[in-house]
Write a structure and sequence with these properties.
By secondary structure, the chain is mainly alpha-helical. The protein has two domains: 94 residues, Arc Repressor Mutant, subunit A (Orthogonal Bundle); 34 residues, no CATH class. It is 61% helix and 11% strand. It has a three-stranded antiparallel sheet. A hairpin with a 2-residue loop joins strand 2 and strand 3. Helix 2 packs across helix 3. The chain is elongated. It starts with 10 loop residues before the first helix and ends with a helix. The model has no long low-confidence stretch (mean pLDDT 90).
């Protein structure tokens, strides 16, 4: 079995990917307009970021008139799985229980969220 590739994304890259996952396709201008706080970033900076992301295999483009229309080349679940696995491995030495324990101790958790977690654990136990 080959190891799946871990896609490590910075904040801006992750926001760009979220726009593409939500919209399916977008031009540089569309992505720039969709991201809050990016007005401080130049349009050319956004275009450069998308080109770099394409070189990494994260996005692809097609030409429509004189505009590049970008789309995600990697599914959201692949990125989230890779980033989450990386987090668990690096910070919690691969222990999911340690990560959950940490989150339960450091975050506010509602009764509804705890019930949902219990249900997810019970469903997983049934599959073992």
């Amino acid at each position: 079995m080959t190891a799946s590739r871990i896609h490590r994304l910075g904040d801006l890259q992750l926001h760009i990917m979220q726009v593409l996952w939500d919209r399916g396709e977008a031009t540089v201008g569309d992505v720039h307009a969709a991201l809050p706080g990016t007005r401080a970033l130049a349009y050319t900076t956004m275009a450069t970021m998308l080109r770099k992301m394409e070189a990494r295999g994260l996005v692809k483009h097609r030409l429509e008139g004189r505009s590049f229309v970008y789309r995600a080349a990697v599914a959201a679940d692949v990125v989230s799985r890779g980033m989450a696995d990386h987090l668990v491995d690096r910070l919690f030495e691969g222990s999911l229980a340690d990560m959950v324990n940490h989150l339960l101790k450091t975050r506010e958790v509602s009764r509804e969220e705890l019930v949902r977690l219990e249900r997810l654990i019970a469903e997983r136990k049934q599959r073992l």
